[in-house]
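Input structure tokens:
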């Protein structure tokens, strides 16, 4: 049985038919919360991320990052035996998650319409590029495309006249997977009352749109189309990154009280009376001029010096860290956001679960599975006899 049986979702079995990032993120969240997540891969090669460098020995670090905590099975879904075994696993599960193109699950005999009558309690979650309805339902989806079409790339970057820039992380993939996990949890709660499963449908496109709350509010109220502002905020100023003597520091001094504190801390009390910056609306309307003025002060000291001054003065601030610095930060360590897992004797560092619970832990008990590593035990738990498993292996179905 699953080693992480101590979690919030202990006793919940999830079949994750996935590749790359969106559905694996969903399964990752559920596994961290204690669900028994079984990743189904297609033979012969499995998830393409298995081939992504860097490697620890023969183990892909990106694959381990997205799939630690899960068990793994691998089927030849071109074979009747592989399809039948796949369907039988889903029939015994609480949740099924998939992120393939429209029609792929139906092709394997496990589409929602094919499963809902025989598995009335099944929570069936589909993550796609654009959702399973609408004129774009049959399009494939990639994070870059979703970031562009959701409006995200129009508000990301240095400013007007500059090339469009995507968010550095594959934010629509990760957010779609997180939204899917949230939707599944809601459906599981509803099932306790109704006794019925349901179809949960989200997409990279909607995940991207969700990140435009502020900018969409501006447009919907005013008709103004917001654009890229670098690290600045469309509604508040100063609220951005400023260049220091040796790097960058972010500060949020957006309300009037914090603004008046800031100008005294940087040694420029006269700015509080400057007509361009006297109130929040004036600072927002003159954000460019404000940034130019403040940068002349921030460039005189190091990031470390300014952080100590601002933090002591009650101004929300923080340095701009790279990934190495983030993983080594004391708060990252205190929150257990970097963990070690053992993969075939190779220690691989992974990110921890981003939510903490008073009564349950989210200990990571296993690395990502090898291709088909748990075929025998998972199939046996699903009711397959030793002879049936041997036949599947003999035929090449597993």
């Amino acid at each position: 049985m699953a080693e992480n049986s101590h979690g919030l979702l202990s006793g919940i079995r999830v079949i994750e038919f996935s590749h790359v990032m969106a559905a694996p993120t969903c399964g990752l969240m559920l596994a961290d919360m204690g669900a028994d997540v079984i990743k189904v891969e297609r033979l012969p090669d499995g998830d393409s991320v298995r081939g992504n460098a860097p490697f620890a020995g023969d183990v892909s670090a990106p694959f381990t990052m997205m799939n630690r905590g899960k068990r793994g099975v691998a089927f030849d879904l071109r074979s009747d035996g592989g399809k039948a075994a796949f369907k039988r696993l889903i029939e015994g599960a609480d949740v099924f998650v998939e992120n393939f193109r429209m029609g792929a699950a139906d092709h394997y005999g496990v589409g929602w319409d094919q499963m809902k009558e025989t598995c009335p309690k099944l929570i069936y979650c589909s993550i796609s590029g654009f959702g399973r309805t609408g004129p774009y339902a049959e399009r494939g989806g990639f994070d870059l495309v979703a970031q562009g079409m959701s409006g995200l790339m129009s508000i990301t970057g240095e400013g007007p006249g500059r090339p469009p820039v995507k968010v550095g992380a594959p934010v629509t993939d990760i957010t779609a997977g997180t939204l899917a996990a949230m939707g599944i949890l809601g459906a599981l709660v509803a099932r306790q009352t109704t006794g019925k499963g349901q179809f949960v449908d989200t997409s990279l496109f909607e995940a991207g749109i969700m990140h435009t709350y502020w900018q969409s509010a501006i447009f919907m109220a005013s008709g103004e189309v917001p654009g890229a502002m670098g690290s600045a905020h469309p509604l508040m100023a100063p609220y951005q990154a400023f260049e220091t003597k040796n790097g960058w520091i972010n500060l949020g001094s957006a309300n009037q009280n914090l603004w008046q504190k800031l100008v005294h801390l940087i040694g420029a009390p006269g700015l509080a009376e400057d007509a361009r910056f006297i109130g929040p609306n004036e600072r927002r309307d003159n954000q460019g001029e404000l940034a130019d003025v403040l940068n002349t002060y921030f460039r005189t000291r190091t990031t470390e010096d300014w952080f100590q001054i601002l933090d002591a003065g009650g101004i929300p601030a923080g340095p701009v860290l790279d990934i190495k610095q983030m993983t080594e930060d004391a708060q990252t360590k205190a929150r257990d956001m970097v963990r070690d897992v053992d993969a075939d004797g190779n220690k691989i560092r992974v990110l921890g679960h981003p939510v903490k619970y008073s009564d349950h832990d989210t200990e990571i008990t296993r690395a990502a599975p090898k291709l088909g590593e748990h075929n025998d035990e998972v199939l046996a738990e699903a009711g397959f006899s030793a002879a049936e498993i041997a036949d599947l292996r003999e035929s090449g179905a597993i």
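The chain has two domains: 13-211+331-395, 239-243+248-319. The domain at 13-211+331-395 is CATH 3.40.50.10540 (Rossmann fold).
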